[in-house]
User: What shape does this take?
Amino acid sequence: MTPFLRNLLVIARRDFLAIVATPTFLLFLLAPLFMVGMGLVGGMGASQLADSARGAGRIVAIADAADIEALRAADKSLRAAMPREPATLEIRLASASLDPVAVAREKGSDTYAVMSGPLTAPRIVEREANSSSGRYLALIAGEVVRGRVAGAPPPIAPHFEALTHGGTSIAAQQSLGFGAVFVIFLVTLLLAGQTVSSLAEEKGNKVIEILAAAVPLESVFLGKLLGFLGVAILFIVFWLVVAIAGGFVAATQLDPAAIAAAGKPAAALAVAPASGWPFFIGVGFAYFVMAFLLLGAVFLGVGAQAGTVREIQMLSLPITIFQVGMFSLSAAAASAPESGLAKFAQIFPFSSPFAMAARAATDEGHGIHLLALGWQAIWVALVVYLSVRLFRAGVLSGGSGWKFWKRKQA
Amino acid sequence: MTEFSVEATGLTKYFDSFKAVDHVSLQVPAGCIYGVLGPNGAGKTTSLRMMLGIVDPDEGTSRLLGGHRPQAARHRIGYLPEERGLYPGMKAREAIAFMGALRGLDWSEGRRRAATFMSELGLERVIDEKIRKMSKGMAQMVQLIGSIVHSPDLIVLDEPFSGLDPVNQERLETLVKREQGRGATILFSTHVMAHAERLCDRLAIIARSARRFEGTVDEARALLPMQVRYTPRDGSDAVAALLPAGAARKGEAWHFAIEDSAVEPLLARITAGGHGVAGLSIARPALHDAFVHIVRQVDAGFDGDPEEDAIEEDAA
Assistant: This one.
């Protein structure tokens, strides 16, 4: 091991342990639980609200006894083909006293539309003009009438065939890319911002001079970054393990029939990034590390110039805005993979990890990622180098005070 | 190894337009204890920092341990900064091992040596105590151990005695001598003359940003004439005629300064004078007086308002 690497690890070890071996870290680690808990409570409330609303909704057809069976059959065959399933159809026997407007105004349930009169010229009372429920009622009326005029059509026997491979749509891949950008951004936002205040500790308790005398400042900066990265990875691994364990528990609780019935999630899993899942996840993690190191290095460098805790607090706003800016740039790039903007986002060092992760979702090239990781690594080194130079010139050499704007004017 | 552990030449540093250190050169022979003395704000700390490569000098160079750049010899150097600092959450043993690890020492070896050193210095009670629970003096001793735990060849201590009680000052002196016995070179700054006088083989005096004296303790003391205290047996005032001009009587005794060459003639005169000798001492002034003399001389050379030139060393 080279001395530089050794020093780096000594610093990283100290920082990692100093963060992890505190009760506060437990709170930090478990913080997402609050988020998940809040989300669950909110989600349950919302879904209950939606459930009760859906159960109460209906559409009504007032029809002659002769038409009732035909309407039921038409509803049954058309319902499944609708993009959004219509509300429950309620069929009532027509009578002179039954007023469609009164039916539409009945209490106890949401009535979206009421159809009455002869099927060839139905009167449809809608709650909202031009609603999909009204059009659906007209459609089943039309189906019944068409069936009668043409006689029973010959049954068709369709043969369904599914594309099992390579069928992932570009749109799905793009949203996968956006997802990658979002996840990396979120995790970096949550974790990399901590590096801003990391040198404040050393400056506050004067350890910085011991470090500066004993090891190159570059290894202090890089070691700190690495320590924080270790904390971030511990955080991510912890939650991954929790998620996977939770998944297994859930899988044993559910019977396969229920999973098959769910259908939709399974279809979502069939979406694959262009570069393949294992590569996508691997390279996504590598880009997370790079995003963390790049943004962390910038924040560390900026934070190192700050003299007081208050200054660090003030700095956190521009830093968050900078991160959000990189996120927006990469998100825009993810939705337009071939555009000039995307190219810019992929090359610009601070958005590159996000944008390149998105690219892995839509582009099958593997080699380009090696190039991108190298390019980003160069920038990590460059940012650390510049931070150290600024720190040396401004903070360590500043005769009076620790502020960079008080540097020598001569 | 060459004969010098530290060879700094022409170190100069500006803070804004103020020249904090002005062409300071130091040659510290290997294996000696070397003191850097100076009043507060003279530029001692900045000189040491430049020497160790923590701060880049505006002019001048520093070579350590046989011509190495300071950055290239880090593992062979131990440094106790003037501003003491340790991670308050660390245990003493870990803190020492950490400082050792920074200088390339193995963690486990560092922990082992930490326990040994602390027991020797009477700190065995607090080996596994967190730094924040310690008194300032204890923490300082821990930091001192941390700076020498890796057996460095060059030990630089910036004001090591300040903040220590007399018992710990004594222990520190013993420790410094022991490290010298091991073969290390020790360079320390102080403005307490008693320590320098007892410990230093050589010393440099820095005042007003520049080096004003370099040599042994005896050479420094030799800058001032010897002080004579003479008590004649008969107590008559007539004895004044035998003594140099400027001799002053305090009680029974006469006090005056004397050049080296005038000692024997004086003795002859006293013996021949017939006033008798009830008490006679001829001695070099203490280092303290020599130091004050040098600093006063330098200050007298500055016409400007001293307040204007004062550096706030604490803020550095």
Summary: The first strand of chain B starts at residue 4 and ends at 15. Chain B touches chain A through 39 residues (CB under 8 Å). The first helix of chain B runs from residue 44 to 51.
